[in-house]
Design brief:
By secondary structure, the chain is α/β, with parallel strands linked by helices. It is 45% helix and 11% strand. The chain has a six-stranded mixed beta sheet with strand order 2-1-3-7-4-8. It has a two-stranded antiparallel ribbon with strand order 5-6.
Length: 447
């Protein structure tokens, strides 16, 4: 359902690490614009030694990744790929250290945060410029996600594996709350209506969903048509009646018991709560369905899957990992061709069959594996098919913009939490949140 739910199956990069990384870059003179690093140009020669960094794929996916490398080197014998895999803890800090030392890899696996960290500072090559026709190879929503404000049509990473939103829910608890399991909510507003009825009928035995405002924002606001940023991407503009209405509704639902009280201030184990039958709506990640199948089979049998809750725009969000190219790589042809090789259709399909992920590659997503619904009863099979269907039309509207950093998210959540708990009114909370967010945005732009 929410961004944090999508990222639960990916390595979490801490807010502290990200904030430290930003400060370190600025303090050490690495925080300049794109003009400070000379961009490599194609030569037509696919040759040279390149480094490839991934994020926590060993040892589970060692054979797969090494196989991709081996096949690439067989096709391009003049290229030597050195693969390094690093743990998630401190990943952004390592990127900073490498940037300071001029030692970034030629091809680097980036999450949303690390993409913003390097991209905003002009350290990634414009892959749209390197490959003029490559955009058609990828799902539009994934390709568009790696644009940067003020950089026109430039795209600064190749989309790799992606995760779409889906809706997961316990059909038995639906029935106990007087809801029809065959009619799940389809909009944010309807989702809240269902949550209110669940709170009224559950008698405190179970809750509807996790409060988790950091995970829900800015996605819920975007789906409701709240303008997050101005047209230039230079100021936050979410202080609107719709955003205020969202906070007021969350406050009301929280007071009525639609969410576990403790979930407002700390991240509980949502898998454990859902797996023990105490939560109606589970995380909106297809990977979650597999986890429940393995760890809570009785609840898995009661689990239904549907298309993601949308909003006024009719769009869902997607969470994407990407492969960035070091802007001043000495072997840009080798680096670009290798990134395209890793993210091509066949290689992404093979990876997706080993992990609960989806190809960002349009050809890969068209593979029959993703259309198979089986007998229509198995939740994991349905989640895979529904997720793939949504990816084909997923748009950027519900994706977190790069300006919404962890620091911005924390600042917004602090004010929203106060309002949900009744410590300040909703309108004041949204106004203060926007003021704090714009301070952070201005400070980041000045570095």
């Amino acid at each position: 359902m929410t961004r944090s739910h999508l990222t639960r199956t990916r390595t979490a990069l801490t807010t502290l690490a990200f904030g430290t990384a930003l400060l370190s870059l600025a303090a050490c003179g690495v925080g300049g614009g794109a003009g400070e690093t000379k961009e490599a140009r194609r030569t037509g020669e696919v040759a040279g030694a390149i480094t490839f960094r991934t994020l926590q794929l060993k040892p589970k996916y060692t054979a797969y990744v090494q196989g991709v490398i081996d096949s690439f080197e067989a096709k391009y014998p003049e290229v030597k790929v050195t693969w390094e895999d690093v743990p998630g803890d401190g990943y952004n800090e390592k990127l900073v250290a490498d940037a300071q030392a001029g030692a970034l890899p030629d091809v680097v696996n980036l999450s949303t945060d690390s993409f913003q960290l390097l991209g905003d500072r002009g350290m990634l090559a414009d892959v749209a410029a390197l490959d003029g026709d490559v955009a058609k190879d990828y799902v539009p929503g994934a390709w568009e996600q790696f644009k940067l404000p003020g950089k026109g049509d430039g795209v600064f990473a190749y989309p790799w594996y992606v995760t779409p939103e889906v809706l997961t829910y316990n059909k038995d608890l639906f029935l106990q709350a007087g809801l029809d399991p065959d009619r799940p909510p389809t909009s944010i507003e309807q989702f809240f209506d269902y949550a209110e009825q669940i709170a009224a009928r559950s008698g405190g035995r179970f809750s509807a969903f996790m409060a988790d405002p950091k995970g829900r924002l800015p996605g819920d606001w975007q789906k409701m048509g709240v303008p997050i940023l101005d047209a230039q991407g230079r100021r936050f503009t979410f202080d609107t009646d719709r955003a205020v209405a969202w906070v007021e509704r969350m406050k009301d639902l929280y007071a009525k018991g639609a969410m576990p009280k403790e979930s407002l201030l700390k991240a509980d184990d949502i898998n454990q709560l859902y797996g023990s039958g105490k939560l109606v709506f589970g995380p909106g990640s297809p990977g979650f369905v597999r986890d429940i199948k393995q760890n809570a089979p009785q609840v898995y049998d009661r689990t239904r899957v549907a298309g993601a809750v949308t909003g006024r725009l009719g769009h869902i969000g997607i969470y994407a990992q990407s492969l960035g190219i070091r802007k001043d790589t000495k072997h840009v042809d080798a680096a670009a061709e290798f990134a395209k090789w890793v993210t091509n259709g066949p290689n992404q399909v093979e990876f997706s069959k080993k992990a609960t992920i989806y190809p960002s590659n349009a050809q890969g997503l068209a593979d029959p594996h993703f259309a198979d619904r089986g007998d229509g009863k198995d939740a994991e099979t349905l989640a895979r098919a529904i997720g793939a269907e949504q990816l084909k039309t997923a748009a950027l509207d519900a994706n977190t913009p790069v300006q919404w950093t962890n620091q911005v998210g924390d600042a917004v959540v602090r004010e929203v939490q106060k309002a949900i708990q009744g410590e300040q009114d909703a309108r004041t909370a949204v106004r203060k949140a926007q003021e704090e967010a714009n301070k952070l945005l201005a400070a980041g732009s000045a570095k």
